[in-house]
Here is the input.
Amino acid sequence: MRFVIPSVILCQVPLLVALLGAVSVTARGADAIYEVGAAKVDITPGYPIRLNGYGGRRDESEGIRQRIWAKAMAIGSGQQQPVVLMTLDSLGVRESMVDEVARRLFEKTGVDRAHLVVAFSHSHTTPKLTNVCDTIFSSPILPQHQAHIDQYTAEVTDALEQVALEALADRQPSTLSWAVGKVNFAKNRRTAGGPVDHDLPMLVAKSADDGHVRAVYVTYACHCVALSDNRISGDWAGYAQEAIERTHPGAIALTSIGCGSDSNPASGVTGDNSAAAAHQGAQISDEVDRLLAGALKPVSGPIVATLTHIDIPLNPVPSKEELEKLAATGGPAGYNASFQLAKLDRGEELQAKLDYPIQTFAFGDSLAMVYLAGEVCVDYSLRLKEELDRVRIWLHGYSNDFCAYIPSERLLKEGGYGGGAEVVYFALPNTIAAGVEEKIVDQVHAQLPPQFAEKPSETGER
Here is the structure.
């Protein structure tokens, strides 16, 4: 199913300009005026809960190092559907949760699913959510632990609805601009010296009245795994948000993750070394300050929101006999095989494909934001920035659905963790089949307006 919904942002413009579908222009120059709102809601649980991301960590959490948040940035006027960019301090969510939030939002505001995105920070020190990596612990979850997970999942669903509504209610005339900086703490975790994406795209909303910073949204392609103990925190992404908000009082900072499934912080996984995570967050914040002090590119034009689902096939599902043999071997693979057998015993079919969401927001011809689901490797970012105009493209992984690692063809051939071995922790019966890279890249090209494939000449003209 494919949705293409143009959202022309109109506010405080003459009737003729409104009829032409243009955005408002300030007296200072060519800065377009959007209606922008931002909000945040604390999602730190008030009770112990299992944290997600590390299979050997099977006790409930042992305190709070840092508050964690759901945040939202709403862009658009009441005359057209706004888009709502949401970020969440979480290892990941399933699309069923996003769909439920969208259903509630549509009933109350008319904003539909194609205009709402949830990007998660993939922090490995955040609570587990229901149906997210249900085989990660390689053993059954205790009923009392599952009760806390289910309770928290319902609370986070409510929080996402709340923060979206608050951001929509907060909208006021603002300018949008963006820039791309560099931060270098991400390192390829599969191959020494392997590919990484050090870009730090930043979107800033400033008040149209006095120019003060209202919201900052940044993306960096790196795992949130500096911390690995059993205390709740947002890891480096959480520290980045805190540092940005300290520097810009009253502003709301949102962080998301790029195509960084095969990148870790240079610090490695440190256990409880919060100083390492805080330092990485400070690097993000310092680069934001450097960008804000320089020349920013204005964002302008009508917003086109597109959401498409494509089928990504898995390799053939093992037979029951094959699963029984694998289950007898024990370990993570054996536990996952037992999980699949239990589904068969309940009369359920085993999963044969991913129903994979791809979402884009195009702001005229000034900026295109691409959201890919799952743990997407860096090859996708590097390839799409080569094939499209890299100075106008913004790539996200870890969005809308935490369904699987999404390898490139290169990683599928190499194998290992991130190339297929990890599926046992995602409750999948088999690995992703070859051909996934072309399917995803082709769909991104299909969604974006053709002007984003036009690259600037040496003079900077397209």
